[in-house]
Every structure is written in C-alpha cells, then in structure tokens.
Design goal:
390 residues; globular; Growth Hormone, Chain: A; 0% strand; mainly alpha; 15 helices
Amino acid sequence: MEASSDTLRAPAAGPVISGAKRATRLIFLVSGIGMSAWAPMVPYAKARLGLDDAQLGLALLAFGGGSMLSMPFVGWLAHKLGNRMVIVASGLLMCAALPVLAVVPSIAGLIAALLYFGVMLGAVDVAMNAHAVDVERHDGGRLMSGFHGLFSVGGLTGAAVMSGLLALGMPLGFAASAIAALLVMIVLWLRGDLLDDAPAAHDVPKEPLGMPHALAWLLGLLCFVSFLAEGAMLDWSAVFLRDFRGVSPASAGFGYACFSVAMATGRLTGDRIVGRYGPEWAVRIGAALAAAGFLLVACVSGAPASLAGFVLIGLGASNIVPVMFSAAGRLPGTPPAIAIATATTLGYAGLLSGPALIGFVAHASSLPVAFAGVAGLLVLVGLSARIVKR
C-alpha cells in the first residue's frame, strides 16, 4: 500500500473499518437527504416572497455557486484538519440551513441562506468522498459506488419525506426542522465511527501542497461530462417528454423518476460490477450505455422508448463519477482531499452550466440534437477510460 500524508497513521483494525464503512454510508445518506429536502420547499419560497421565474433562478444560482466556491478551499482544509472534523462540522452546519430556508423573509435573505447551504453541502461532499477513499483503501475492496448509491437513496428519501410531511398538513417550518433534527442526530451518532485522520501535532507533511496533479484536472473534465448528463435529465427530461413525445405535463416527471431509480440501482450494485470488470471497463460500459440511452431518446419516437432511454442513461452514468472520484483519491503527489475537490468542482460546473449549454444548442437546432451531442461527449468519456488505471 502506497503511503501518503492523507492515509492513517496506523493500520485500521477490522471492527474499525466496519464502523467506518457504516458511518460513511450514513453521511452520504445524510447529504442526499439534506440536499433533496430543499426541492419541495422551492415553490413555497417562490410564493412566500412573491418571486418571478428570473428572481427565483438568480436565487437558486447561489446554491450551486456556494458549493463550487467552497470546494477548492475545503480540499485544503480537510487535508490540514482531517476529513472527520470537516464532515462533522459542515454536516451539522448544513442541517441548520433547512429551517432557515423555510422561513427566510426576503430574497436577499434567501440568496444568503442558499449560498450558505451550498457552501456547507460542498464541504460535506468533498470531505465525505475523501474519507470514502481512505475507507476503500483500508478495506481493500470496491466501495465507492455503494457509498454514492446511498446518496442517491437519500435524494429520493429526502424529497419524498418532505413532500409527505407537507401533504399531511405539517407547517413548512416544522417539517424542515423535524428533518434537520433527525439529520443532526445521525451526524452526532456516526461521528465516533469516522476514521480519525487528523494530523498529529508532530507530523511533518510528506507531500507539499501545490497545484493538483494534471490527471486530477482530466478526471474532473470527465466528471464534467457525467454531471452534465445528470443535469440534462434533471432540467430537460420533462420538457422533452412534453414537447417532443406528447406526454402530459402531469406525467412528464416520470422520465426523471425512471432515471433516478435506475441510477440508484446501478450505484447500489456498482461495486460488484467494478470489482468484476475493473474500473476501466466499468467506465467504458457505463459511458456506452448512457450514450446509447441518449441516442434512443433522441432518435426513436414514442414515450416508451424515451423512458427506456432514461433508464439506460441512469444505469450507464451511475458508476462513472464514483470510479472517477476513487481514481482521483489514488493519484500520486496530490492529497486525496485536494484531488477530489478538483474533480468535484469541475463536476459541479457541468451540473450547473450543462443545462444552459443544452438550452443554447436546442435553441440553435433542437433538443433531440442537443441530446445526441451529449451522447457524443459520453463516447469521449468511454474512450478516455484508461485514465482510471493510472
């Protein structure tokens, strides 16, 4: 095993790793629930503050912008203080944002709250992925896809629970506070099982902190494409089904639901696939499936074919990012937290800017053509898969 300044100071025993795996799964679940619990709150914020679509779009931009701004700094902070400290502190601070978002009384306050929420979610994201790399290294097996699978499960759970509480008549502030309190308890419970990776006072860093390895940037660009594909599904799948396949607005959301369930399923089974075929072929096969899904959606008429395409996209894209993050965490010469911060920042750039880029292409040609272009980018990801073996 190659030593680095971000590995543990002593080998971890079996029970320690078992607890660390459980804690890592839980923090991925917490992050997914926390992020998705905000989604059902958006219409309430728009109505409460009397926002038009442009004002709401500007406010929502603060959420993703906050995450992107925090990630490079958090990589350095996690390297200096240890992933466990950053995970616990940012996880608790993230939970505090949910009740505030439910009651904030002005658009300026909403932008500030979303910026803060994004910063804390970005911090949790970087630190939990760096911690996952440490756990995977000590365990000796493939775990990253399963961890990300729990994030996907959390995303489905958070939105469903918040929507369910609101449907039962619970006031928005109480519902947000109840979910936040539950997440706080989970974070406090799991903190003892996270690996203690804080540098000792007498330790001398073995790796200077400089620019991330060039391969970290390349991995980040590949994550950009994968996140762009996810953003395309989030923002354009319902529009596509409504405008090009004749699906009613009430049912158009089924496309993203098919994609989300397929992605969660692919990630929960992904560790076995990566372990059997290796990371390179997992990326090649996944990129090919996702590209085929986009082409099926773009080229074959009929809603059933499009829904099948969304399933292929979810299954194919599910394990690309986990494999890329795992590869970033193993790069020589760059601490895992900093390499992962680089890949994550570029990935989020794809998630945020991708839907807008697709909109520009769709305006110049059509949405099916834009989806076909995403398929071409995914083919490039498959052709670049050898990078994960380096």
